[in-house]
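Dear support,

Our group has been running a series of protein-ligand predictions, and this particular one with adenosine-5'-diphosphate is the one our PI (initials K.S.) wants archived with full inputs and outputs. We had some confusion internally about which version of the output was final, so please treat the block below as the authoritative record. The input we submitted was:
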Amino acid sequence: MNKNIKKMIRGKKNIGVGARRVVYDLGGGYVLKVAKTKYGIMSNKIEVMIYRLSPSEIKKHLARIEKFGNDYSWLVMKRYSLMLKKTDRNMRKLFAMKAKFRKYGVVPYEVTTNSGKPNYNNIRRKSNGEIVVIDFGNFKRHQILKKK
Ligand SMILES: Nc1ncnc2c1ncn2[C@@H]1O[C@H](COP(=O)(O)OP(=O)(O)O)[C@@H](O)[C@H]1O
Ligand SMILES: [Mg+2]
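Confirmed final output from the archive:
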């Protein structure tokens, strides 16, 4: 692990691990995502790109990215700790959100499981009740973006 990352995570608590990244609580409402492998670096890069290119209608469903390393080995993201409850209303909201991403040419992978259940590892709830995706490192953008 790179020296700067070691410095950033010193004394910080590990709050999550996925297949591609390790996540630390930086305090003050922020987390640090550190790539475990080259796929982690790709995920960080995709998150930065998707976040940058998304219009506000879908950006409001993406966890806010604060900063990132030039080599994409790490990124700082806002921390979201409210879990989504499994209600019919939230299920409808989740599917509406997925449809909205698609409408803007973004394929929202890993937001639900293969059996159509919410993937609670990757989604949270904002204080205003909106669903927010905290892992969009596997999203894909269509080459030709639809106008609306
Ligand atoms: N912004 C965040 N706020 C709170 N917890 C987070 C955040 N980002 C990630 N986590 C936690 O860390 C875990 C791993 O992060 P994730 O981005 O999903 O990594 P991976 O790409 O390896 O799946 C998540 O499942 C979640 O528990
Ligand atoms: Mg994940």
